[in-house]
Amino acid sequence: MIFAAILAGGVGNRMGEVDKPKQFLTLGDKPILIQTVEKFYLNSRIDEVIVLCHKYWLNHTKDLIEDYIPNAENIVVVEGGELRNDTIMNAVKYIEDNHELSEDDIIITHDSVRPFVTHRIIMENIEKTQEVGACDTVIPATDTIVVCHDGNIISDIPNRNYMYQGQTPQSFKILKLKECFNKLSDEDKRSLSDAAKIFVLNGEEVAIVKGEVFNIKITYPYDLKVANTIIDDAKLNISDAETGEYKVNLYDFGEE
C-alpha cells in the first residue's frame, strides 16, 4: 500500500500576526492545507492520506476536510508529534495500528504548506522508493553555498555543482524507515533536520527526485503573496489556453 503523510503540525510563528497556523490560511479560494491534500487525494496510486496536526487543531482540520472534500473515506486526521520526525513516526504508528504492513509499503511525507507539488513529483517519488527504498525531492542550488561554523568566519565554500536544495515529498519504505529510526541514538535523533537523514545516518541509499522551483514552502508573508501570484497566473493561462494561444496548461504547474 501507499500512504501520504501530510505534515501540518506547525503553528506558523514566522508568518507574523495571524490568528491561526499558516496551513489554514487561504490560498486562492481554499485553505493552503486543502490545496495540498487534494494533490494526494486525487492520485489513484495513493491508498490513504494521513493529515497530522497539532492536537488543538484536530477538530478544525477535520471540519475543513469535510467542508472541502466531503465523504472522503481515505483521508484521516491524526495528532502530530513535538518534532517533525516525531510526527512522521506518529503516522507510521497509525499505519501499523490500522493496516497489515509488508516490506513494499510506502509512506510519502510532505509539507502541508507546499501546495504546488505536481503529479510528476509524486509519481517519481513512488517509483524511486520502490526501486531504492528512500528518496528526497531536490532542486540544484543556484546560489553559492557558504559554510560557517561560528557565525563569523567562512569555513568552506563547497562546489555548487554538487549542492542541492531539499524540498518535499520525501518517501520511504515504511518498515525500513522504522528500522533505521530505531537504530539511531538519542543524540542522532536530536540532530535530525529532515527524515531523509534517518537513512543517511544509517548508511542507506537515498535517491533524488527532481523538484520544481515553484514547489515552494509557504513560511513567510512574502511566500503567501508569491503563492497567490502563481495561482492567479495559472488561472490566467488556463483562460488563454482555451483560445489556442498557449500550448501548455500552466495550472498543472509544469506537468506535461
From TrEMBL:
InterPro entries noted in UniProt: IspD/TarI, IspD/TarI_cytidylyltransf_bact, ISPD_synthase_CS, Nucleotide-diphossugar_trans, TarI
> Might you name a Gene Ontology BP term for this protein?
isoprenoid biosynthetic process
Which superkingdom is the protein from?
Archaea
Molecular function (GO) terms for this protein are:
2-C-methyl-D-erythritol 4-phosphate cytidylyltransferase activity; D-ribitol-5-phosphate cytidylyltransferase activity
Give a yes or no for keyword Nucleotidyltransferase in this entry: yes
Q: What is this protein called?
A: 2-C-methyl-D-erythritol 4-phosphate cytidylyltransferase
Q: Which UniProt keywords apply?
A: Cell wall biogenesis/degradation, Nucleotidyltransferase, Transferase
* Presence of the UniProt keyword Transmembrane helix in the record: no
Q: What is its EC number?
A: 2.7.7.60
